[in-house]
UniProtKB/TrEMBL annotation:
Key word Hydrolase present: yes
Species, as recorded: Kribbella italica
Protein name in UniProt: Glyoxylase-like metal-dependent hydrolase (Beta-lactamase superfamily II)
Entry-linked Pfam families: Lactamase_B
All copies of domain Metallo-beta-lactamase, residue ranges: 23-219
Domain of life: Bacteria
Family annotation (InterPro entries): Metallo-B-lactamas, NDM-1-like, RibonucZ/Hydroxyglut_hydro
Keywords, sorted A to Z: Hydrolase
One MF term in the entry's GO annotations: hydrolase activity
Length: 226
């Protein structure tokens, strides 16, 4: 895979089309003051793929890493990004610290699925993404915010919450008129989902009413709206 330019200074490393892989896309807002990375990749190996793609396109070095939410496929690549400022919603810190305290290994994944078979799709994907758990380190954010935060490059971060993840945020690049939404309007993860849980259409409509030219979520192609 290679980076795809959405428009202006916004680029995307595409999501993995294989649903069993659970490989979220990674966004980059390229700026000469330092690029902003939107999500970390689902593993150190995934992060290294994105790094090679950034170098191949000659984009500026990444200085900020933004988590759209704490789920593994958006955060497990963070340790591979080295000395960057990790930014997330305030509620992400405790959630990630709890995840970091778990004894991640292939045996642990198997044991957890035996206890709760609904974890199977997610935990099988984690096993595929991380062949060697000795290199996994879950990184808690350096900088957090409650409602909004504007980064030095002008990228605007805003808390939206929702049923998919309590810490969900969106990122807007006003210069390119692009909103990166992560998974914010998705239903809860499979192991937490009930028959009543569906796409949060009310949230999706609210975001669309802002009228950005492009919307980018983490498991679909970028959508041009006008």
């Amino acid at each position: 895979m290679k980076l795809e330019q959405v428009v202006g200074r916004v680029w995307v490393y595409p999501h993995d089309p294989d649903p069993e892989a659970i490989g979220a896309s990674v966004g980059i807002v390229a700026d000469e003051r330092g690029s902003v990375l939107i999500d970390a990749g689902n593993s150190p190996a995934h992060a290294r793929e994105v790094q090679r793609a950034i170098v191949a396109e000659g984009l500026p070095e990444v200085r900020w890493l933004v988590y759209t939410h704490h789920h593994w496929d958006h955060t497990w690549g963070a340790a591979a990004w080295g000395d960057v400022e990790v930014v997330a919603h305030t509620s992400a810190t405790a959630l990630l610290a709890e995840e970091a305290a778990r004894p991640w290994s292939h045996q642990y994944l198997r044991d957890q699925v035996l206890e709760n078979p609904k974890l199977g799709p997610s935990f099988r994907a984690r096993a595929l993404a991380v062949p060697d758990f000795s290199e996994l380190r879950i990184v808690v954010p350096d900088t957090t915010f409650d409602d909004t935060l504007t980064l030095p490059t002008g990228v605007q971060l805003r808390y939206v919450g929702g049923r998919h993840a309590v810490d969900s945020i969106v990122a807007v690049d006003p210069e390119s008129d692009v909103m990166l939404v992560g998974d914010c309007y998705y239903p809860p993860p499979f192991h937490l989902r009930t028959e009543e849980d569906t796409t949060d259409f009310a949230m999706a409509r609210k975001l669309l009413r802002e009228g950005h030219t492009y919307y980018v979520d983490s498991h679909s192609e970028p959508r041009k709206m006008r």
